[in-house]
Amino acid sequence: MYNFDKTQHMKKYVFSTALLISAFSSIAQMKQGRVLYERQVKMQGRLLLQGAPENPEVAKILSQPRIDRFELLFGNNQSIWQKADDEMPPEELPSSGPIRISFMGGTDDITFVDINSGKRTDQVEVGGKKFIVEEDIKQLNWKISDETKNILGHPCRKATAETIGKRPRTQMINGEIKKEEVTDTTYSTAWFATDIPVFAGPMYPKQLPGLILELDLNNGRTLYKAIELTEKTEVAKIKVPQKGKKVTIQELQKERDALMQQMQQNFKGGNITIRGGS
């Protein structure tokens, strides 16, 4: 009896050890890679159209999600987020009487992350001009659940976070831009791969103990989904973006405010730009 129990115990031990070796082997293999994401954004631009002529075709397009593709390259405890090579050109929506509407989605923005230093560097385009902004990575208070699902063949766990902050809200009313600061709560649901312990993903780098393969913001208002994952990547491309003037967050906001003023002038001349919300 003793020998039988001992034999069974050894079999379980060998089996468990094999699983651990397999898991560590999998972990060791994914030190670098490339993820292709599809981002769906529900258009928030209609808020800017109060007082503008109604156009059923414009309303129909605005009711549909905007779809873009981005790539995430990661390696050496660094990552870079940028527009995918096969990204579609910015959409131009149909005119509404004398008003011509175009969509400005910020798809040319680049985010570089250095996990070791805890810093992120963003290359942001505002009104056709590029700016470089560096800041510390903000940590969210995530709650990791036992809920799991499979994404692209990788086991993933669910994590949720709630962030309360202030954000500017801008509306175009009767040809004039109205700005105000409102309290805003962002509900985030992330699914991270437990077999790829890389602190990377869309929006929230250095947050969860695994590569984020899916991220839902505010119940589908913005949704990131990984549609392709490969270990092959050009690590040399993971570098700090250099194109643009270095500014602070406050200086960047001033540039955005100036752009909104320009939008007000364009509206009076029959043009308006719409940005999707995230």
Q: What is the total domain count? A: 2
Runs with pLDDT <50, length 5+?
A: 1-28, 45-52, 92-105, 270-278
The average pLDDT value, as a whole number, equals: 77
Biggest sheet, strands in spatial order?
A: 8-9-10-11-12-1-2-3-5-6-7-13
How helix-rich are the residues, as a percent range?
A: 10-25%
Number of helices: 3
How widely separated are the two ends? 64 Å
What can be said about this structure in brief?
By secondary structure, this protein is of the alpha+beta class.
Describe the structure.
It is a single chain. By secondary structure, the protein is α+β, with helices and mostly antiparallel strands. It folds into 2 domains: 1-30; 31-274, no CATH class. Helices cover 20% and strands 44% of the residues. The protein contains 3 helices and 14 strands. The protein has helices spanning 2-29, 56-62, 249-268, and strands spanning 33-42, 65-75, 78-83, 100-103, 110-114, 119-126, 129-136, 143-151, 154-173, 176-193, 211-217, 222-230, 245-246, 271-274. A hairpin with a 2-residue loop joins strand 9 (154-173) and strand 10. The radius of gyration is 23 Å and the shape is globular. It starts with a helix and ends with a strand. Mean pLDDT is 77; it is low at 1-28, 45-52, 92-105 and 270-278. This is GLPGLI family protein.
List its salient traits:
278 residues, alpha+beta, 2 domains, 3 helices, disordered N terminus, GLPGLI, GLPGLI family protein
